[in-house]
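Re: weekly structure request thread

Next one in the queue (614 aa):
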Amino acid sequence: MAGITLTQAQTQLDAYLAAETAVLSGQRYEIAGRMLQRADLAQIRDGITTWDARVKTLSAAASGRSRSHRGGGLNMANKNTLPPLPQNLLDKVIAYAMPGLALQRMAQRTQLAMTGGYTGARLDRAQLSRWNPTAGSANADTVADLRMLRSRSRDQMRNAPIALGALNTTVSHVVGTGLTYTPAIDAKFLGLTEQQAEEWQDNTTRRFKAWADSADCDCARQLDFYGMQEVGFRTYLESGDAFILTPRISREGKPAKLALQLIEADRVCNPNNRSNTDSLIEGIEIDPSTGEALACHVAKVHPGDHLRKTNSWDRIEYRGQRTGRRAVLHIMRPLRPGQVRGVPWIAPILEPLKQIGRWSDAELNAAVVSGVMATFVKMDPDAFQGLYDEDAQGAIINNASKWSGEMESGKAINLLPGESIESPTPGRPNPAFDPFWTAMVRQIGMALEMPFEVLVMHFQSSYSAARAALLMAWKAFRSKRDLLAKTLCQPVFELWLADEVAEGRINCPGFFSSDIIRAAWCAAIWTGDGPGSIDPTKEVTAAKLRVELGISTKQAESILHDGVDWRPKHEQRVKEINAEKADGIYVHPAGSAPAESPPDEGDQPMPQRQPKPF
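Done, posted below.
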């Protein structure tokens, strides 16, 4: 220990830091003749901790000696500088016999001496002694695990009822039948009258709806725009992110129009498994100085496709160099600054989801076995020897030995002579299963921002509690809906509108001359299905009161109710009322007085004749 210098300790620390960076990028690294790889990551991080502590100790010792020398023999070291720890007799014995263990011991003692006031940073407690995570960057902590996280996330989404239920519930409430376009242009800024604004909005809504309802908006011609919203959002939850390419395609001799292509997260990867660099991370090229995504590399064939023989990659720039048109849309919610790729939605709870699935399967199997009614025929060994000859004995033993142990209800099973069945009382169904399962699912719901009642789709409490659960869940659904609108719906509409304006089908003066004018023309509200209601009477009454008090509008309440704008409902309602009046079946709403109709001419009193003056 005494012979290690600060330079040597720093060299060892640099080597272990380089090894960590290499293995996190999928490479190997050699230290002292030993080849380290991903499986050795825990040992590498232990080495970083050990040598980091040693460097700090030696640096502190060197600083103390230097200041002592400058102070004329007096120790002028700062009180906050940690002096080197003295070795006791046990330390010296361990150092002589096992230098490596002694080094780790000294490093841990140094860390304990440097521990601050937070209990969560203590290492002298048994509960925390083996908890030693590293403070990696946003990408270092995610990209090395992405492939396994995606695979396990998709497996849970396919096979685990809890994960599948949470996914379907979220997709149904966030996307539902699809987010629809409601224009909200700034007519005053654009200098439009109210009538001109309505005419423009009607025409644009009609044209966009025709494009969105057609399968031509999909490069593969499988989905309309609303179906692509659902698949894109589902892919984002399962894989952590999703990509949408925005080419313009000409079909059957028609002019080229915008078409969307969904790309699964796995297809955006480094060409030929190239290692990550400062400017290329998991298939995305970035500007190291700003972090802006510049381009992505898309594999022509999914890396997990077993039928592929060779693969190639297309480099697609996020924006056109000349026009700035967006060629790639990336659905992702970064959790840390600088994060390039997204993490699957259920990544933090994969282990408890898998464990609760295994436990549920075990309890189900135990309940099935305990419900099986089978008969076991036990044979006396003496009678077996006396009643059967050798051939018959061999045949019986051969048949009995073929039993695999599988239980089947109503089956009679012959046991071998001397064998007997002894099994503990299964006690199934387990009365403790449901309370413990409920407690675990509540924790899973907390991680997913989904109350227990919504997650299991079972409401058995009061109206207030059920409504509170729905409101809490709806906040999370609205947040995710806003993410989908901002990363997919609004950019797609802006691309579509730019094409329509450029080709003269829609008139938007100043659209390409100013970003502010363009934003005024592109302003929109994306509405989806409403949250539903538990007690419609109470909720309609509350909506009516909000409108009457002036704190809400019919349009806002209509969108909140079922996601449909107020105007088409109003137009349809006018038609219905006029038709009812024409057929003489119209009934005035309760509490409203019918309008007084003007009297007929025949019902008016005759004017009195004035007497002639004399």
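The chain is about 45% helix and 10% strand. Confidence is low (pLDDT under 50) at residues 67-82.
Next request, please.
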